[in-house]
Amino acid sequence: MLIIVCPDGGKTSWYFDSPIDATMKYETYVSKELIDYIDQAYSTIKDKAGRAITGLSMGGHGAFYLSFRHQDVFGAAGSMSGGVDFRPFPNNWDISKRLGTFAQEPQNWDKNTVINLLDLIKGSSLKIIFDCGVDDFFCTVNRNLHQKMLENKIPHDYIERPGRHTWEYWKNSIKYQLVFFNDFFLSSSN
Q1: Backbone phi, then psi, for 22, in 5-degree steps?
Q2: How far from the centroid of its chain's Cα atoms is residue 122's Cα?
Q3: Which tens digits make up the pLDDT trace of 39-51?
Q4: CA distances from 96 to 86, 112, 113, 114, 178 (A)
Q5: Helical residues (DSSP H) of the chain, grouped into ranges
Q6: Cα–Cα dist 113/45, whole Å
Q7: Is residue 150 part of a domain?
Q8: What is the CA radius of gyration of the chain?
């Protein structure tokens, strides 16, 4: 049996606890409060071996951000067309409302973007898959993350396919991620 939980990250949360807005605590919500609630309400495997996290676009950033920072909670992570480095987009998606402007608070941006969190990954403690369409505006930042993972010898699966930042692309992408997560769950149960 598989339980799929889809928390709403709003349009501008990016799934971190905002250092400038105390009302925006999405990291705490998803990695602690939501996990605790699901484990109490349902018959779950209360261990990282029974949990995977994925998302698309901002949610792809969130899935990696949360899993990299909470490898004790999540055993596998995916990202589809993820905004894995939002620094090239300083005027988009109201990120400055969560981190301050890039010009005034660059350290907040550096500390909260996925590509700068690779030093948190401990060996192969986290199974990782991500992909991006070659015509997606996030393709370059995903390629950069892939290269940085290769340089740091972080095991991962990375896929590029034709496609844009669209539901048509993600409907196909999720199929591959579900196969990857199924293999993770099966190997964890042995």
Answers
A1: -65, -15
A2: 16
A3: 999 999 999 999 9
A4: 11, 12, 13, 16, 33
A5: 26-28, 35-41, 58-69, 96-99, 106-112, 139-151, 167-188
A6: 29
A7: yes
A8: 16
Q: Which residue has the tokens 């999720």?
A: 174
Residue carrying the six token digits 């998606």: 93
**Within a 10 A sphere around the Cβ of 171, how many other Cβ atoms?**
9
Contact between residue 56 and residue 170 where contact means Cβ atoms under 8 Å apart: yes
What is the C-alpha to C-alpha distance for residues 155 and 150, in angstroms, rounded to an integer? 8
CA dist., res. 39 & res. 159, Å (int)? 32
Q: Give the predicted TM-score (pTM) of the model.
A: 0.96
pLDDT tens string 73-106: 999 999 999 999 999 999 999 999 999 999 999 9
CATH of the domain at 142: 3.40.50.1820
Domain that residue 66 falls in: 50-188
Q: What CA–CA distance (Å, rounded) separates 64 from 55?
A: 9
